[in-house]
Amino acid sequence: GSGLPANREAVGEQSVSVNSVRGNLGFDKEIVDIVDYVENYEIKSDLAYETAWSCLLDTIGCGLEALEYEACTKLLGPLVPGTVVENGVRVPGTNFELDPVQGAFNIGTMIRWLDFNDTWLAAEWGHPSDNLGAILATADWLSRKAEATGGKPLLMIDVLTAMIKAHEIQGCIALENSFNRVGLDHVLLVKVASTAVVAKMMGLTREQSLNALSLAWVDGQALRTYRHFPNAGSRKSWAAGDATSRAVRLVLLAKTGEMGYPSALSAKTWGFYDVLFRGQSFKFQRPYGSYVMENILFKISYPAEFHAQSAVEAAMQIYALMQQAGKSARDIKSVTIRTHEACMRIIDKKGSLGNPADRDHCIQYMVAVALIFGRLTAADYEDDVACEPLIDSLREKIHCQEDPQFTLDYHDPSKRSIANALTVEFVDGTKFNEIVVEYPIGHARRRVEGAPLLIEKYRNNLARRFPKEQQEEILKFSLNREKLQQTSVNEFMNLFVAGR
Hints:
Elements: H1 29-40, H2 46-66, H3 70-73, E1 89-90, E2 97-98, H4 100-112, E3 120-121, E4 125-126, H5 132-148, H6 156-176, H7 187-201, H8 206-218, H9 235-255, H10 272-276, H11 291-294, H12 309-325, E5 332-339, H13 341-347, H14 356-359, H15 363-373, H16 383-386, H17 389-395, E6 398-402, H18 404-411, E7 420-426, E8 435-437, H19 447-465, H20 468-478, H21 481-485, H22 489-494
Parallel strand pairs: 5-6
Antiparallel strand pairs: 1-2, 3-4, 5-7, 7-8
């Protein structure tokens, strides 16, 4: 898909519609397929590793930028202030040393806070790099424990491999199965994917891994309440951290020998399908391989909900045209956004916006800021910018309408477009030609164009947190993929300790 080669080898047969196959004590096939994929599938795609490397750097950088916001940092650190865990998890940009469960919460929360890490769009949406909270915390903790007892630490290539597999699990389930339509939040897939790969990292037996994964499905699942009017709020920024920490906790429980629940999905009346998925079993478009990482979407230029990325890019082009024509946002009579159904459902918002979490999920707000100021940064969602009266005035003039072809192209595996088209009309009766952006910067079809910008974003985020000498040391390791892959996880994490 998306014009890129994909590794199509796979473990396990998966049909278009999966019906759970169980023996007397056998686990649901969907659970077995995930565990067998994690245990046995060898990632052979260099494209997947190359993309995972970019994803790692970008995700850590997103977390470092989040540390500039007190609303995020107040949630970080140990549960009991002052607690330091021997051989504990390091949290990039801080000097915390935490247990792996709280370490996963910290890392998972900071990387998701600004809605600036990678994105996967399908029947379900999500941000597969959220799983890095569990992966990095677990890998760092295991590596420090190993070195303290004379063992061998994990290497960063192990982290990249776990990332590819977590992306694949979350993304492949998301392709055909919409959790948002039943009111569930996509972070349940983060919990499931993180549980699967962390179980492997912690050395669980196959039976223990099956048990752990069943615990993740049986677990309570978050509602999307906090992502939508009238309740949109900051929980959406720490929900992934919560999911990754829960995954690590469940794996630790399973490692003790805690039992699993073989028909966690399929049990009549009491299973996930009947209780939470309207009695439907999962459908699969493709088997597990390395497709998702190869085709992941990066947010490079704008910290905006991904369905609006192309709209903001178009708005920035229009801003430049307005500058040339001597016009400003005050001269705008109306803005029409031709878009796709997912955008209409998630971020087409009217009325008051109560907080930054509400604003970064409103396409009218994002487009208005771009047309007024010629920019869109994380700071533009804060109250001191949102109080500008012209933003709300312009929002009222921005109207979305669905283009059925855009919706079809959004779901087409060969395109996976995220198209938006903007037409601006001015009070003097003039208007610009429509600006169409089908594939925003960060899309797999624009990977070559986006790669240097992604590194520039990473460098900028390092500079927010570290002195020049430490930045250079980090870059020396992280910009050389071969060197990075052979670096121990704890050595890599030490690079990001604050105040070294």
